[in-house]
Amino acid sequence: MSTKAQLHSRNQHSEGYDFLRLVAQTPELEAFTISNPRGQTTIDFQNASAVRMLNRALLKTHYNIDFWDIPAGYLCPPIPGRVDYIHYLADLLADSNNQDIPRGRQIKMLDIGTGASLVYPLTGQSEYGWNFTGVDIDAGALKSARQICEFNKLKITLRRQNKPENIFRGVIEANDTFHATMCNPPFHSSMEQANKGTQRKWANLGKGHSKKLNFGGQNAELWCPGGEIKFIARMVEQSMEFADQCLWFTSLVSKKDNLQPLCRILEKARVADFKVVQMAQGQKTSRFVAWTYMKKDQRFLFANRAWV
């Protein structure tokens, strides 16, 4: 699949940030705005407080989230790129629905590693009305997610994964069915590697050396033994146990070089179908891998039982 030159066509941020509108909705953002060398309004993306305030403004302005905040040190995700994952998932689900994007609470999504920010359920529920279950191993992240839900009166199911070695086991219950799972896996293999990755990003942006992690992040959000290949391989292995309870299993893949070994893992798992969906945000390209154990006619029947 060819790489897109820009954000998904339905992404509300495809034209960039409208700071006039954002500040009008969230006046506190104005204190963090600066002018870049071309005289355009922006923020200092190396300032964690500025990034957090920008996210608060984006979620309020575009996704009707009146209150949003996260504890210091937790991952503060860039909203435009995260929303792209939601929109491309909608296209994937439309393939089993006569190219019509399914909407409403009957569409059930499982977010693995939902985080303190709860960004996928918040944006996915706003854009398509989907019914989300968010899972995390971190008690602090789930406490933050619950506060966001309670303040905004949102119906999002939150579950604790008590065993770090498990992904689906222990959180998918016997009577659950999901149309898709999604995950932004920890992609570094160690904290040292995570720090080096951050330094490279700031160097590429011309920011020099920084001890700050890009957009923050707790250990479990940034790294795990073996990095994302091992994590997604474990996800594939455990997904076999829930083959008839989920239409599509998906995960972001941060590194292009990891695609080939992951595709070999999926081939050995004897899935019915798998896809690599390319996404692009400006000069950055990202992607997610999706796999299913259901053949095309089975996918259509599974989808339509729930969507009718």
Automatic annotation (TrEMBL):
Which GO BP terms sit in this record?
rRNA base methylation
Q: Which UniProt keywords apply?
A: Cytoplasm, Methyltransferase, rRNA processing, S-adenosyl-L-methionine, Transferase
- Enzyme category, top tier: transferase
Question: Would you tell me the Gene Ontology cellular component terms?
Answer: cytoplasm
Q: Which reaction does it catalyse?
A: adenosine(1618) in 23S rRNA + S-adenosyl-L-methionine = N(6)-methyladenosine(1618) in 23S rRNA + S-adenosyl-L-homocysteine + H(+)
Write down the Pfam families for this protein, in alphabetical order.
Methyltransf_10 (PF05971)
**Subcellular location as annotated:** Cytoplasm
GO MF terms held by the record: 23S rRNA (adenine(1618)-N(6))-methyltransferase activity
Q: What family, per the record? A: Belongs to the methyltransferase superfamily. METTL16/RlmF family.
Question: What protein does this entry describe?
Answer: Ribosomal RNA large subunit methyltransferase F
